[in-house]
Write a structure and sequence with these properties.
By secondary structure, the chain is mainly alpha-helical. The protein has a single domain, classed as Rossmann fold. The chain has 7 helices and 4 strands. The chain has a two-stranded parallel sheet. The chain has a two-stranded parallel sheet with strand order 3-4.
């Protein structure tokens, strides 16, 4: 059951969420930019994240708002660490630097196998990362699942093979739970 806590919610996408971060997003996802090295890719994501944390996320949290982000720091570990093979410790330090240590209270991981996810995306024009193919996507998925295993209290895995309404109900349940904990 959904609770009404009377809180203001700010939704952002990441990378993105402000002018600078959106420009970096365009650069990162443009399929024409095949020459971006793995380290440069990670640094660009960190730059976009740093900008949105300082300009949008931190001020919103200080104002008492709830911030819902479509992706955040775990994506760097999954994509650039597990997908690209960059050093996980380097990426964790990079995340620490660009966020000032700001971690989410809750992360919802909508899990769907790469073989199942691929057909769902076929109607869209693939971005630079989607063009990496199924092997890359499966490495990323395994990275996310490993993170979820390591941080069970924060990262909740939702089976995205279910009907969208069921996934939404589960997401709302986890959100309600974290909001109730913060209200106590």
């Amino acid at each position: 059951m959904e609770q009404n806590f009377g809180l203001e919610v700010l939704g952002i996408r990441e990378p993105g969420g402000n002018i600078i971060s959106e420009k970096i997003r365009e650069l990162l996802l443009d399929a024409a930019n095949q020459g971006i090295t793995s380290r440069t890719e990670a640094l660009l994501y960190a730059a976009a994240r740093s900008q949105v944390v300082e300009e949008v996320i931190s001020p919103a949290l200080q104002a008492g708002k709830i911030v819902l982000a479509d992706r955040y720091m775990d994506s760097t570990i999954a994509y650039q660490g597990y997908g690209r093979g960059l050093d996980i410790n380097f990426l964790q330090e990079l995340n620490q630097l660009c966020t000032g240590g700001l971690k989410p209270d809750l992360t919802l991981l909508l899990d769907l196998g790469s073989e199942e996810a691929w057909p769902r995306r076929q109607k869209e024009i693939p971005d630079r990362l989607e063009k990496e193919g199924l092997t890359f996507q499966e490495k990323v998925r395994k990275g996310y699942l490993f993170l979820a295993e390591q941080e069970k209290e924060r990262i909740k895995v939702l089976d995205a093979r279910q009907e969208p309404e069921k996934v939404l109900q589960l997401a709302i349940r986890w959100l309600d739970e974290i909001l109730m904990l913060h209200r106590e």
